[in-house]
Design brief:
Mean pLDDT: 93
Strand content: 25-35%
Number of strands: 6
Order of helices and strands: EEEHHEHEHE
Largest sheet: 6 strands, mixed
Shape: globular
Helix content: 25-40%
Distance between the termini: 39 Å
Structural class: alpha/beta
Low-confidence stretches: none
Strand order of the largest sheet: 1-2-4-3-5-6
Length: 137
């Protein structure tokens, strides 16, 4: 089955961050997955694909693989990205997607990234949605 959207790449520092956009709603919604993701394989999971299509039914959904995961550039095990670097990947993806302001939805470790993004870029944050996330471990 063909993907409902194509994978593109944003540049964040020296890393290429894979992202996709789907939907044409009035709200930009950036979905930040937990520690494992793969944009193209995600669509092969019927429950996940249905949930993503539902989110895209009322928004312009922006998905991405964090650096070191999925289709984004790998990182050496001894140079894992900091929370600040990964948070800046959100900014780079939003810039590449032409998103000035978005609601941020984070699952698992995506939640703290979104909290840091909202504190760093409050004018670019329309809302925060944290799903099965945490403020600290």
């Amino acid at each position: 089955m063909p993907l409902p959207t194509r994978t593109q790449y944003a540049k964040s520092g020296h890393a290429h961050i894979a992202y996709q956009m789907l939907g044409e709603g009035p709200l930009d919604l950036v979905l930040v997955h937990g520690w494992i993701s793969h944009l193209e394989l995600l669509w092969e999971q019927p429950v996940a694909a249905r949930a993503l299509r539902r989110l895209a039914s009322f928004s312009r959904l922006i998905l991405f693989d964090k650096r070191g995961t999925g289709l984004s550039d790998p990182v050496p095990v001894d140079q894992l990205p900091t929370l600040e670097q990964r948070m800046d990947d959100v900014r780079a993806v939003m810039d590449a997607a032409g998103s000035e302001r978005a609601a941020l939805m984070g699952t698992s470790e995506g939640g703290p990234m979104n909290l840091l993004f909202a504190a760093t870029y409050p004018k670019r944050t329309a809302a925060l949605i944290l799903v099965a996330s945490y403020a600290r471990l």
